[in-house]
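Page 37, top half.
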Amino acid sequence: MEITASMEEKITRYANKVGFTLSTIFVINGSKRSTKANAYFSGFGKQKRITLYDTLINDLTEDEVVAVLAHEVGHYKKNHVIINLILSTLLTGFTLWLLSLFIGNPVLSKALHISTPSFHIGLLVFGILYTPISEITGLIMNYLSRKFEYQADAFAKKTFGEKPMISALKKLSKNSLSNLTPHPLYVFVHYSHPTLLQRIKKLKEN
């Protein structure tokens, strides 16, 4: 499936408006695997490429598609991709550093009444004790992710429009059968994105 000339023109015009150098627009035939609609960009510098799922093109109007892309451009403009990359690298380094402290630690082996320290015992203890730490880091990463989503939504609203962004979110939420009213505590702990109602409320704020 290919995008129409009018959609390509709208995407290109928007990209030029916000200074987002765009080299190529791809379409993925995702409908064979899932009903999920999605869009993302890849690459850096002048070789940035936008990829659209055919489900996104089928389900949304041209303005709504551009609004979704404006949201993705917002992530790029706000440096969310780079920030997430840095945080993921630091988190991986922190995890490996903790693992190095556990591997072969005689104190941990004695706590389990094992006389000889070993890699396997250290790995087992690390898996048990790291669980609460991973829960804390997960909470922090989810909080930042939700904050980034709000910022990207605000960018799309400012540079393209509130109404197409809201209507696109409603259609995407409907197609993915998302829960409209999950418990706030569950959202705080598990959600990497704000709920539909939270995003719409934020978009409608002045």
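Page 37, bottom half:
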Amino acid sequence: MNVITGKVWKFGDNIDTDLIIAARYLNTSNPHELAKHVMEDADPEFKDKLNPGDIIVAGENFGCGSSREHAPIALKAAGVSAVVAKSFARIFYRNAFNMGLPIFELKQSDMIDESDLIEIDMQNGKIKDIDKDNTYDFTPIPPFMQELISTGGLMNYAKKKMK
């Protein structure tokens, strides 16, 4: 999965983990249950509009707030294929890779509009806005972290290495 293609859903700055999955739903760790409530406090209709493979594009400090692993789990289980943002809270950044959710820092994320179709080339560090025929460069994620993504997260990666 070196290239990810999907429709964009836009969110602004400082989308915290409570907006991604509200604390009132943290009585479960079941990914499918969490997915039913993903982003509902930011956009109550998001889950119904989301299609598997869609991509979230956001502003600065995505995933700030508490250090809950439930946030990337909920996004991934809901069908979000990747998150692109100007910046990520560090704990969310680590949790996303540990859970196998691809995330990419792109300073020009505000140039991409909701509903645009984008293509993310993980290996070469390029995001192409297919609708606008614009291409943006980002620092590619290291091969080790790409392997975390391709195996589905840290636990699957560790299991693979133990075989």
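Margin note: The chain has one domain: 3-162.
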